[in-house]
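Issue 218. Parser rejects a valid record. Input:
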Amino acid sequence: MTLDPEKLRAAMRAWSAGVAVVTSTYEGWQHGATVNSFTSISLDPALIVVTLQKSSRMHDLILKSRIFGITILSVEQADISELFAGKTHVEDRFAGLQTQTLVTRSPLLVGGLAWLDCRVGKTFDAIHSTLFIAEVLETQANSSGEPLIYHNREYWKLSRL
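Output the parser choked on:
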């Protein structure tokens, strides 16, 4: 028996997540995609995991390049999240945006809360997706700002209890 995908979507709307954009570059081609399936899995060695659908352009780019960057978005970057989620059709998602690079030269979005520059170590098949486990080569963090949170199909701000 297979679970109805709509039932899982409804249940997962109760899970709040930070929002990040994964980016990469390969042979002059760059692309980025909004993700919330991203987490740290080890501090020593420094490892993270990102999960991407096999049918996505981002998936193919990272398979070829074996590198990627992560920008953890600030609350002021909801429009960037929408852009990289493909909600607006544009030829070049990076047009008009400021970027920076670290070790791998993957484009990282200026204005984020933190940036991770990564090299793929292992991949794991997950039926229609791939888990990319990557070594974090370099990071930078902004000492101020609030994270962009996604909950129940809307963007939210954090507040202290």
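Fixed in the parser; the record now loads. The radius of gyration is 16 Å.
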